Structure formats: C-alpha cells, structure tokens
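During data preparation, we tokenized the protein backbone, and the record follows.
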Amino acid sequence: MTTKKTDANAPARTPLDAASLCMKPHDLFSNQWMLLTAGDFVLKQYNTMTIAWGSIGTIWNKPFVQVVVRPQRHTRKFMDDFGTFTLSAFRTAHRPALQLLGSKSGRDGNKIAESGLTAMASSAVSAPCFAEADLVIECRKAYWQDMEPKNFSTPAIAANYPDGSYHRIYFGEIVAISATDAYRAK
C-alpha cells in the first residue's frame, strides 16, 4: 500500500467523546456512506470498502458500532485477521472516491491510491483511517457472528441474499473518535 502526504486542505478533526457525537445515524450509513477499514497501517496490511449498512449505539455498557461484511469482500479477511477497524465519513465532494472504493476489490490493485484518498495512522488502533475524513470512529473488534437465514423474521430480508452470501456481523467497541465541528453536540 502506498500513501501520500497529508493534504493541507484536510479537515481539522479533533478528539471527541462518544457522548458528544452528534449525527443522523440512518443518514450517515444509508445516504452519506462510510469507509470501513481493517488491518494494520504500520505493517501495510489493510483494506477498505464502502459501507451503507450498520449502526451506532450502546451494548455491554460500551459505545459501539455494528457493521456487516459479505464473505466475498476482500476486507472480510482483514476484519477476521485483525482486532481493530475504523469507520471514516466524508463530505459529498468525496462521493466518487467512495463509489470507486465500494465497486473495486483491493485484490485487483491499489484502489486506495486510485481513489485519491490518503490512508494514515489512527490515534488509538492499528487500522488506518483517512486524512480527508470529517469523522473517524476507531474500534476494537468485540464480537462477530454469521447471519443465520433461519432467524429472519421478515421474509423480505431474504431478497437481499439471492446468492446466499450472508453477511458476517461485527460489533466494535468505540475506543476513539475524531471529528470536525459538524459532528459535535452543540
């Protein structure tokens, strides 16, 4: 993996307590999208993918995120092999980069370099984040489980899995957040 120097125009993120995080969770995942990045920045072993499904909340008395990854995604190996991951949210101007990172596989080349985004070390976890992100949520993997189609209560859910590639669900304890003022409770 190659990275470029941090852009002088990168947003000014500062540390933020989870209790002070202000956002529209459904909009953040479904409309804005985020990058899920797992692996180890120092070892140069990591991958990222665009996600539009997930949640943020509290479980086991800890702030957490929940994300899902299909078995065929290259990022899944990094989620399984490493203990940390990050979520990075961006302004609309970066939508083309997120589209590219969601449609290409890291198996086939350096899609991060192609996207123009800058991978960088996170503050508390080994998984990288991105210099251009307005919001970075750093997580320690706490739990995972494969989806069981027999447990779908609503038949319509199965329509999301015509080929049977059911997601693996990951819960990550939030250990650090950095954000621009747009994500701060007023």
Notes: The domain at 14-183 is CATH 2.30.110.10 (Pnp Oxidase; Chain A).
